[in-house]
Amino acid sequence: MLKGNYRFIIRFLGFTLVLVGIYELMDYLNELNNWYRSDVFTYGSAIQTLAFLRLFDHFHMEYFDGIMKGFEIYLNETPLVSVVPECNGFLLMVLFLGFLYARETGFKNNFYFALAGIFLINGLNVLRIAGLTFVVLNDDSMFYKVKPIFNGVLYLVVFTLWYVHLRYYSVKEDKLDSPNQI
Fold first, then answer.
1. If 102 and its partner were Cys, which of 4, 11, 35, 136 is the partner (CB 3.0–4.6 Å)?
2. Angstrom distance (rounded) from CA 38 to CA 44
3. CB 86 within 8 A of CB 70
4. Count of C-beta atoms within a 10 Å radius of residue 130
5. pTM of the predicted model as reported, rounded to 2 decimal places
6. Are 31 and 22 in contact (CB under 8 A)?
7. Parallel, antiparallel, or unpaired for β 59-65 and 78-83?
């Protein structure tokens, strides 16, 4: 039997590789059969961002297909940002879920925490894309200076969620293995 860290790493890698594999398979089948213009996660991120941006002005979105497939967000026929598969937050959500799955906690705790975490990560990703859109709208030269900050905030939230999960939701296995126990 695998113990401790090895078991965690194998469970983490297995879970994340399976989910990424399914995502890539869906993308491949999509390319093969032309089911969708882009993958469903990129479309979801783009459409949610557009819905948020429309609260402020008449933004619109168009699909583009070239070296990469994605969606361009426009204001008054001016392209502002592109939402491509690397922007959809899918990999960050997979890593978050992989960590939770690898920790072997109760299903109920993991399910509700994972669901809340996915909604939070997705919502913050939409706000990140919208924030970058507003940055480009005001001063497009600042895009590459602020993008790492926006990404860093999102990563910090994921690390905080992992910490909260470890601190408050994980099974306390260490107490069972303590040498002071009788």
1. 11
2. 10
3. no
4. 21
5. 0.84
6. no
7. unpaired
Which residues lie across from 152 on neighbouring strands?
A: none
Find the helix packing angle between 90-102 and 107-138, rounded to 10°: 160
Q: At residue 132, what is the residue type?
A: L
- Dihedral of CA 107/25/34/37: which sign? positive
Tens of each residue's pLDDT in the chain, 182 residues: 567 788 888 989 999 999 999 888 887 777 776 666 667 888 899 999 999 999 999 999 998 887 778 899 999 899 999 999 889 999 999 999 999 888 777 777 788 899 999 999 999 999 999 999 999 999 999 999 999 999 999 999 999 999 999 888 776 544 444 444 44
Q: Which two tokens stand for residue 136?
A: 């480009």
Angstrom distance (rounded) from CA 160 to CA 154: 10
Collapsed DSSP state (helix, strand, coil) of residue 38: coil
> CA-CA distance, 30 to 40, in Å (whole number)?
10
Burial class (CB in 10 A: 0-12, 13-18, 19+), 129: buried
